[in-house]
Each structure stands twice: as C-alpha cells, then as structure tokens.
C-alpha cells in the first residue's frame, strides 16, 4: 500500500488495512492533520479497508474536499438526534451538499422552528459524546435484514448494483446504510447550524 502526504512524502505499508490502523502505526499525529484520502479519484475515509496494492493521497483538514467529509458526518449526527427525539421517524438519504448538509425524514408532523432548536441541541449532545464512527461491509442478505423496518433504505438498496460494496456506518446507537466517507468521531464536527426545514 502506498500513501501520499500533501508535502510529497510517502508511506509504504505491506498488506491490507484501514488507513486509521496504518497511520496509528506509522505516525498517529497524521490523524489530526488529515481527514480522509482519495482512492482512484473517490473520497474515502480512514475506516475503509484498503487492498495491499492501493495507492491513496491523504486529504488535509484545511482542504476544500475535507468539507464534504465533515458535512456528511454531520448529516448522520442530525439523523441520530432526530431519532432520539422522534423515534418513529423514517430515514431516507442524508448527503453533503455544496453549502451544507441535509437529511430527508418522513415524519407524521413537519418539524417546527422549535423542533429545529431541540434537534440542534441534541446534535450538540451527540457531538459532545464523541461517538466513534465505525464501518461494516455486508452482503445483500445481511443488508436487507438490517434495514427490514426501513422502507426508504430498502428502495436505496434496490437501486444499488449487485457488484456494489454495501456498507453501514455506526456511531453510538445510530446505524445507517451508507458508503461514507466520515470523520473519525462525532467530536470532530463541532461547528454547525440548522437553518431551515422544507416539506415535500
């Protein structure tokens, strides 16, 4: 495995491993300097297991690309907070976007401005708890079992090809069908503000 740093230095590693494990072994200070990596033009995080012949370029926290990983992690914090406050909510998708992040929820009653304040407060609680993000790759049958009560997630799974890697991410009690990437833990996404809610 070949890992390229922003300053041109390279780290070589024999075998398959996650970037997190490699950097912990080589120089754990790099986990504070970098937030993820590029693999074949795609953004990945430190949780993904890489093949022995993988070549990646690390993404610095200061780079524009880091914002996408940061924002996508915040969408999971948002969903986690919503489920704590409104347990009957059904989840759809929660991507990062150019100027922020969102998550699609199916709820009986649309969120009010007061609900947004409660959700943001609970998000700050999730961040303070500093849950580690973990990635689990599964086969299609396992994925179907894990989303048995989540109709929108089942629709997403149906649209994914049989050759696609299926992964779930977990932080604390929250588990979501997701390809990533994410930061190392919820404690790294401290700066956010919920601005609006839209009904559809």
Question: Helices and strands in order, then pairings?
Answer:
Blueprint: E1 2-4, E2 10-12, E3 17-18, H1 19-26, H2 30-33, E4 34-39, E5 42-44, E6 49-50, E7 55-60, H3 64-85, E8 90-91, E9 96-97, E10 100-101, E11 105-106, H4 113-129, E12 133-138, H5 140-146, H6 151-159, E13 166-171, E14 174-177
Explain how this protein is built.
The relative contact order is 0.16. The protein has helices at 19-26, 30-33, 64-85, 113-129, 140-146, 151-159, and strands spanning 2-4, 10-12, 17-18, 34-39, 42-44, 49-50, 55-60, 90-91, 96-97, 100-101, 105-106, 133-138, 166-171, 174-177. The chain contains six helices and 14 strands. A hairpin with a 2-residue loop joins strand 9 (96-97) and strand 10 (100-101). The radius of gyration is 17 Å and the shape is globular. The longest helix is centred in the middle third of the chain and has 22 residues, at 64-85. Helices cover 34% and strands 24% of the residues. The strands form five sheets. A five-stranded mixed beta sheet has the order 2-1-7-4-5. A three-stranded antiparallel beta sheet has the order 12-13-14. The protein is of the alpha+beta class and 200 residues long. The protein has two domains: 2-62, Roll (Ubiquitin-like (UB roll)), CATH 3.10.20; 66-188, 2-Layer Sandwich (Threonyl-tRNA Synthetase, Chain A, domain 2).
Q: Figure out the total of helices.
A: 6
State the fourth-level CATH superfamily of the largest domain: Threonyl-trna Synthetase, Chain A, domain 2
CATH architecture of the largest domain: 2-Layer Sandwich
Name the average pLDDT: 94
Q: What's the Cα radius of gyration?
A: 17 Å
Q: Based on Cα principal axes, name the global outline.
A: globular
Strand content: 15-25%
- Structural class computed from helices and strand pairing: alpha+beta
């Amino acid at each position: 495995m070949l890992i390229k740093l922003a300053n041109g230095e390279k780290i070589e590693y024999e075998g398959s491993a996650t970037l997190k494990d490699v950097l912990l072994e080589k120089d754990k200070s790099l986990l504070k300097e970098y937030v993820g990596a590029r693999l074949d033009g795609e953004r990945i995080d430190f949780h993904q297991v890489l093949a022995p012949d993988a070549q990646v370029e690390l993404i610095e926290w200061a780079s524009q690309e880091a914002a996408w990983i940061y924002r996508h992690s915040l969408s999971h914090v948002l969903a986690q907070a919503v489920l704590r406050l409104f347990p009957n909510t059904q989840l759809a998708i929660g991507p990062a976007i150019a100027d922020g992040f969102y998550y699609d929820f199916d709820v009986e009653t649309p969120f009010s401005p007061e609900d947004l304040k409660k959700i943001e407060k609970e998000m700050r609680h999730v961040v303070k708890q500093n849950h580690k993000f973990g990635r689990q790759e599964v086969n299609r049958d396992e994925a179907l079992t894990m989303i048995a009560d989540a109709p929108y997630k089942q629709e997403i799974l149906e649209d994914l090809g049989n050759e696609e890697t299926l992964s779930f991410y977990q932080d604390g009690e929250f588990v979501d069908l997701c390809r990533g990437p994410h930061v190392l833990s919820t404690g790294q996404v401290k700066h956010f503000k919920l601005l609006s809610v839209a009904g559809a």
